[in-house]
Amino acid sequence: MKTVLINKATKSSETLKTIYGRRSVRKYKDIPVNNEVIDQVLDAGRMAPSAINRQPWKFYVLTKKETIQSLSKEIGKIAGKEFLKIGPKQILKAVGHLLHYPHDLRFFKGEYFIFHGAPVVIFITGPRDNEWAPLDIGMCSQNIMLAAKSLGLDSCPVGMGKYAEQTKNYSQLHIPSTEQIYLSIVLGYGDEKPEMPKRTRDNIVYIDRMESW
Q: For residue range 111-137, what is the model confidence (pLDDT) as tens digits?
C-alpha cells in the first residue's frame, strides 16, 4: 500500500522526500563507508533536541568487518535464548511477522546476522540514570537515519544490539559501566529496495481543530 502524500509540498520538499524515502534495509553491499560521511551522519544526530539540552548520547562506531561479524554472532546467541523465553504464543506471532521478511527467517536456522552484513554499526549509549535518555536518543537516531538517506546511504535500527552487554566481546566496545546501550543502527549502501509497509491512517484525534481557511 502506498502512503498518501500529506500535501503537494511533499513532492517539492527535500526533507519530506527523505522522510518518505527512508526504509529499514536489511541487506548491504560489501562497500565501506567513508569516515567523513560517517562523521556527517553523526553530526546530524548531535543536532537532535534533548531534555535540558543534556545531549546524553555517545556513539561507539564499528567499521571492521571481523569485529562486526564476531559481535553479531555472539549477540545472535544471546538473542536466540531471549527469544525462547517469550513463550509459544509470542513465538508464533513473531514467526508470522518474520514471514513478511524472508531473509530474517535465517534466525531460526542459526544463520541470522544481527547487523545484516552492514559495513558500519553505531551503538548509541546514554547514562543509566537518565529517565529522558530513551526519548532523546530516539530523536537522535531518527536524525542519523534521515541524514544517512540524504547522503545516499541506507540504514536500519537494530534493537537487539542492546544484547551486546551480555556477550563476551562487550569489553571491546570500551563502554563505561555508567552507560547502557539504548539502540544500535547499521549504515551502508543498500542491496535491496524494500517497499513501504502499510501505514496506519486512523490514529489522529483532533481535540480542537480550526476550520480550514
A: 458 999 999 999 999 999 999 999 999
